[in-house]
Amino acid sequence: MNAAVNAAVNAAVDDAFVAELRSRSTAYWANHPFQRAMLAGRSTREQVRGFVANRWYYQKSLPQKDAAVIANCPVPEVRRHWAERLAYHDGPREGVGGLADWLRLCDAVGLDRDTVLDESTVVPGVRSAVDRYVAFCRTAHWTAGIASSLTELFAPDLMSQRIAAFRRHYPWIDASGLEYFEKRCVRAPKEASYALDVVLTYCATPERRAAACDALTRKCEVLWSMLDAIDDAYRAER
Ligand SMILES: O=C(O)c1cc(C(=O)O)c2c(n1)C(=O)C(=O)c1cc(C(=O)O)[nH]c1-2
Known about the structure:
The protein is mainly alpha-helical and 238 residues long. The chain has helices at 3-23, 33-39, 45-72, 76-90, 98-108, 113-117, 124-139, 142-148, 155-169, 179-202, 206-233. It has a single domain, classed as Heme oxygenase-like (Heme Oxygenase, Chain A, Up-down Bundle), CATH 1.20.910.10. It is built from eleven helices and no strands. The model has no long low-confidence stretch (mean pLDDT 96). Residues 62, 149, 151-152, 155, 158-159, 184 line the site of pyrroloquinoline quinone. Belongs to the PqqC family. InterPro entries: Haem_Oase-like_multi-hlx, PqqC, PqqC-like, Thiaminase-2/PQQC.
């Protein structure tokens, strides 16, 4: 095979891999009935608050998940880049960064901060789903850990819809709290694009690529399980 034919074959193989990863969007939590109801303005205050308070457990676990990916990754350039994600959520100091922005969203929906931070409203199903995500990134091959973040390919569209829905249907939410999602709409596509490049570059075998696709499915299941648990806990409120 000459070089041009080889390059064309490799590009086609990469395209098929990316298409396979993108096809996992059908299992993304944007399609969960709880999420659909929230976007359509059919959630009660307690359900919206339940989502935000429970999601805190996901937010606070992200830096530990990213630290696990870094710990397993042998490539300095990738570690350097991935460390930015960790720094983003933790922020340079108290009160600044992704976690602080999420806590401002908690304020904006009327949650008591101490109650959010003591996690007394976190339901068991959310805790175990998130813990599963962190454990997966600790134990799986580092490229699978990175692939599991690729739900961020699907997140920007959902976050834009969520911002619009919160403004339109839930006027009791202080709009300043939406800054978390506004910032993520800019950042998530960049993070997803980098993660996709890494997965394309370092998943060099069909087995690694299959494992990356499986990791993305597992991650969709984590998010879906979170919403199952939240939906269940706040069902009586509907
Ligand atoms: O609001 C959302 O629907 C949503 C979804 C996701 C996701 O798909 O995992 C993330 C975020 N937000 C997010 O804000 C975020 O920082 C984030 C990091 C990750 C990850 O797996 O590393 N996912 C997500």
